[in-house]
């Protein structure tokens, strides 16, 4: 099992459980994660969801060595269909689960890792957390769930994408992407404490407050932008496919191996 699930005191805790590969996301992990979100959403006893991760790092992003069963010849059409389901439909569904959610992030949160914490309503980060999206090195303009502009603001988003450098937890808090920064040893307790505070509130009021904020973003163009930028992302795959074998994948794999 790549995902652990527990409910206690009206709080569902979902845990990424591939610490041996820095919680890199293969397709089984994403499918299990979506099932866990659905389970928590449908459980009337659950008022708040906490997403956390085992090990040193929250997530090294997509597992480039074990992404999905691929056909002999990979085409842009095939990539589009596969990513639309797991990288777009899943993340939007998690964002819109009608219950508050809290992500607890430690260590590296790289590219696809952002797709796991950004759909959560609140983020508590350990002091050692580093957030990055280096996929410009692949000729792609950002990870599939393009929350960058909304989470960071346009200029900070461009800086992080253009340079590939990680954003520290302190920087992330300053721009409003992270709610709280705590010592690593206190991360789980801090996320749990926040979830308990939220769980003490009326469920319907929480649902309506979340809906109000999400719909305000959607009226401003969030939902349409996420979907349209996903199409821009796919042109990056087309560019990479034009260079036989995605040669930069070896470089990214090498970077991720250092985290394990």
From TrEMBL:
A Pfam family annotated for this UniProt entry: ECH_1
Q: Which Gene3D superfamilies match?
A: 2-enoyl-CoA Hydratase, Chain A, domain 1
Q: Which domain of life is it from?
A: Bacteria
InterPro entries, per the entry:
ClpP/crotonase-like_dom_sf (IPR029045), Enoyl-CoA_hydra/iso (IPR001753)
The record's CDD domains line, in alphabetical order, gives:
crotonase-like
By sequence similarity, the record places it as follows: Belongs to the enoyl-CoA hydratase/isomerase family.
The UniProt entry, under NCBIfam families, shows: PRK08290.1 (NF006140)
Q: What is this protein called?
A: Enoyl-CoA hydratase
From what organism does this protein derive? Answer: Streptomyces cylindrosporus
């Amino acid at each position: 099992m790549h995902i652990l699930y527990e409910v206690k005191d009206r709080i569902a805790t979902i845990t990424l459980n591939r610490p041996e590969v820095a919680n890199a996301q293969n397709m089984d992990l994403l499918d299990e994660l979506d099932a866990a979100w659905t389970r928590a959403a449908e459980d009337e006893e659950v008022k708040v969801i906490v997403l956390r991760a085992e090990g040193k790092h929250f997530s090294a992003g997509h597992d480039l060595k074990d992404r999905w069963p691929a056909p002999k010849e990979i085409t842009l059409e095939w990539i589009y269909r596969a990513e639309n389901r797991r990288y777009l439909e899943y993340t939007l569904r998690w964002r819109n689960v009608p219950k508050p959610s809290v992500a607890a992030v430690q260590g590296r949160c790289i590219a696809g890792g952002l797709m796991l914490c950004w759909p959560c309503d609140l983020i508590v980060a350990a002091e050692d957390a580093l957030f990055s999206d280096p996929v410009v090195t692949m000729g792609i303009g950002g990870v599939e769930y393009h929350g960058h502009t909304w989470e960071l603001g346009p200029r900070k988003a461009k800086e992080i994408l253009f340079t590939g450098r990680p954003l520290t937890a302190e920087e992330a808090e300053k721009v409003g992407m992270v709610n709280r920064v705590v010592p690593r040893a206190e991360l789980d307790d801090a996320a749990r404490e926040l979830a308990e505070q939220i769980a003490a509130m009326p469920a319907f009021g929480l649902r309506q407050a979340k809906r109000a904020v999400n719909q305000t973003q959607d009226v401003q163009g969030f939902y349409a932008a996420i979907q349209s930028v996903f199409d821009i992302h796919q042109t990056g795959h087309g560019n990479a496919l034009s260079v036989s074998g995605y040669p930069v994948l070896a470089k990214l794999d090498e970077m991720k191996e250092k985290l394990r």
